Description:
Blueprint: E1 2-4, H1 9-20, E2 25-28, H2 36-49, E3 56-59, H3 66-75, E4 81-84, H4 91-96, H5 98-116, E5 124-130, E6 142-145, E7 148-151, H6 171-190, E8 194-199, E9 202-203, H7 215-225, E10 229-232, E11 238-240, E12 242-243, H8 244-256, H9 258-261, E13 264-268, E14 275-277, H10 281-289, E15 295-298, E16 307-308, H11 313-319, H12 327-340
Helix pairs in contact: 1-2, 3-5, 5-6, 7-10, 7-12, 10-12
Amino acid sequence: MLITGGAGFIGCTAAARFLGRGDRVVVLDDLSRRGADRNLAWLRGLAYSTGADAQLVHAAADVRDRDAIEAVFKAHADIEVVLHLAGQVAVTTSVQDPRSDFEVNALGSFNVLEAARTLPKLRALLYTSTNKVYGAMEDVGVVVKDGRYAYGSLALAQGVPETQPLDFHSPYGCSKGAADQYTIDYARIYDLPTVTMRQSCIYGPRQMGVEDQGWVAWFCIAAALGKPITLYGDGLQVRDALHVEDLLDAYDLIIQRIGAVKGQALNLGGGPGNTIAIGEVPKLLERRLGRPIEVRYDEWRPGDQRVFVSDIRKAGRELGWSPKVSVEAGIDRLFGWVLENRALFEGL
């Protein structure tokens, strides 16, 4: 198993799961993201305590560096599964620095795909795309219902399906969308066992969220530190949230059933059963804390969708998968972890 971005939130959680099964895991990460060094140290401690330290390898490489990526893949030519998680993850950052966003997400993914073509035992390559490839969906009617935004069309009662036309809104949408389509096409053209996963609002322990990315975790961190929470827009925006353990269950099933989903895109989100309005999260945290949280409002951010809910029925049909962790229980679990590990966030 090789995991690009393996010291990130999803990456280290996945690495821990696979190490716990006795798998050999190569963590490819340049440790440039805040908290990545701590996640890697946690992984090493976990591997040592379970006797799996010999199974964990850290490769310090940047996905933009073609030579470095090729060298890592050559050194670990027996790798059978690649999880490509490395990427620039914030829409706001892509607007500020579109060139770096392109180089990390589009060029970096191209480098990984090309290197993967050299692996003789490759069974599966999973790419983490995003719901942002569907764009702002400005042609879809949005209404306010029960204090939340909702789709006005009954056709989207189960959420946005994979057949929704793509619309790469924002530099981030363009870079992730390009990699999304490259991943699908490499299955067609080169017979590579690839799957692109259009993920929606993943959250869970070890997520070092910041204001412009990983918003559920950031709200929990801000609340724990007594900081105000800023809602961009009016707070009625709706997302379908998916706990990281449910996501990893989907990864397992994709790897097991790669023959059924090879060359396809799959929505992986909480679906209609796990939706929450952004402005509702501070209220959940207030109940857990037993005190008010200061909430501020600011201007809408570019590319922000009023509502996004994934139609996850395809993943259900193809994989037999569905989320098990409710959004309320998942957020409570995450907030508990943040409170227990408050020292990790002091000074933010």
